[in-house]
Amino acid sequence: MPEQSQSVTEDRTAAAEAPPPGGVSRRALLGTAGATGLVLGAAGAGVGYAAAPAQAAPLSSVGSDRAMFHGKHQPGITEGLQARGHLVAFDLAAGAGRSEAAALLRRWSTTAERLMAGEPMTQDDTDVARDAGPSALTVTFGFGNSFFTRTGLEKQRPSSLDPLPDFSSDHLDRSRSNGDLWVQIGADDALVAFHALRAIQKDAGSAAKVRWQMNGFNRTPGATAHPMTARNLMGQLDGTRNPKPTDSDFDRRIFVPASGSSDPAWMANGSYAVVRRIRMLLDDWEKLSLAAQENVIGRKKSNGAPLTGGTETTAMDLEKARADGEYVVPINAHARITRPDQNGGAAILRRPFSYHDGIDADGTPDAGLLFVCWQADPLRGFVPLQRKLDRGDALSQYIRHEASGLFAVPGGAAAGEYVGQRLLEG
User: Fold this and answer.
1) Are 65 and 135 in contact (CB under 8 A)?
2) Beta-bridge mates of residue 354
3) Strands 353-359 and 365-375
4) What's the pLDDT tens digit per position in 93-132?
5) How many CA atoms lie within 13 A of 26 on its CB side?
6) What residues are annotated to the active site?
7) Structure pTM?
8) Distance (Å, whole) CA 222 – CA 272
9) What is the pLDDT of residue 59?
10) 181 CB contacts (<8 Å, ≥6 apart)?
11) What is the helix (H) or strand (E) element at residue 210, kind and residue range?
12) Which string of b and e fits 266-299 if b means at least 16 CB within 10 Å?
């Protein structure tokens, strides 16, 4: 190497070795390249994780799960809880009547069938769910009390759809209650659920406008070591005593029979959905001790077992008393009051979503439960239970019912039919 070139090289090397004022030399930095590389590698992994989650469950285990659109009952009733949900109510537009409603339900049914199969909309698809499988998507449709007046079908309105009575725990926002039409969307992927919500809204076109819409969530399938009852935002197992499809009286409690019912024929194999937005007063709830929380519910917070002992599925001993003579399960415990054998056999199928709509200006979380329950007759299911709770449920001081709706959900559409066809074309 020529001397001049060598001198320049040595000067550059020296400059690189010399630390800047108050700093570290470039060579010193290079000397820690291994460690720095680890840090950069970790940062790079973070960036990669944000774009494509590492160790994500393969499509074959989550995304490929599919619910069927056509069947005896509509989807979204007996399926397990889904990770993401949207509830939306529509009012028919001014001047829209029976024919417009029929065309809308036909469009909605076509779209729901395609999306539940993991296929895009027939036109103007947003591509939000591109690359995803069906992800257990379900879309469920129902009719509110006002729908029958708007469409001239008053004689087909079921008596079971009469407005719910007022309850003492109600603080209802009427603008976020009821509606002509109701749609429940659930999926195990948030983008798939949102895609369906947008598709349903777009399909409504000029025939109907959104009255209210609510977003909910549940635990993602596979997040626990084994399948278990879901927890709500109070940390309690929620749904322990839910009726099971394997119960001998399940269909009688949950679905309108095909014959022998006072309901109109178009409701055969359908069900009634009570929808309540229940705000949980979490700041007050979380001030309670663990023992106090368990006394409010009547069950152990850790595993859902009754306070009288055993496991989650152990029968609760309502007569068991402590040494001081007081019941082990307090007389006003939520689990005691809601037992079917304490309410003339009244039973509902709970299928809720949790919600969190931000934090109020005073720091209070706007969070709670999008309560959805199913029954063959709300006057024998939800109403007697809620009346009983109104009279002394220990949980009532920690919750507030802020919105409400009751909807008639017809049976499933047969192949070639749309949901509600037997009502709208009967």
Assistant:
1) yes
2) 217, 369
3) antiparallel
4) 999 999 999 999 999 999 999 999 999 998 889 999 999 9
5) 7
6) 238
7) 0.86
8) 30
9) 56
10) 89, 90, 91, 92, 101, 104, 141, 142, 143, 144, 147, 208
11) strand 208-217
12) bbbbbbbbbbbbbbbbbeebeeeeeeebbbbbbb
DSSP string over 274-290:
EEEEEEE-HHHHTTS-H
Q: What is the C-alpha to C-alpha distance for residues 304 and 317, in angstroms, rounded to an integer? A: 14
* Contact assessment for residue 354 and residue 368, using Cβ atoms and an 8 Å cutoff: yes
Closest CA to 272 of 421, 137, 373, 175: 373
Q: Return the C-alpha torsion angle 55, 60, 61, 64, nearest 10.
A: 120
For residue 203, is pLDDT > 70?
A: yes
Q: What is the mean pLDDT of residues 365-394?
A: 95
CA dihedral 390, 396, 397, 401 (to 10 degrees): -90
Residues contacting 400, CB < 8 A, separation 6+: 169, 171, 278, 279, 281
Reported as a single tens digit per residue, the pLDDT across 132-151 is 999 999 999 999 999 999 99
User: Which amino acid is present at 4?
Assistant: Q
- 247 has a pLDDT exceeding 50: yes
Q: Where are the alpha helices (DSSP H) in 207-363?
A: 250-254, 282-285, 290-297, 334-337
SS3 content of the chain, % helix, strand, coil (to 5): 30, 20, 50
314-339 pLDDT, tens digit per residue, is 999 999 999 999 999 999 999 999 98
Which residues 6+ apart lie within 8 Å of 179 measured at CB? 89, 90, 91, 144, 146, 211, 212, 405
Amino acid at 118: G
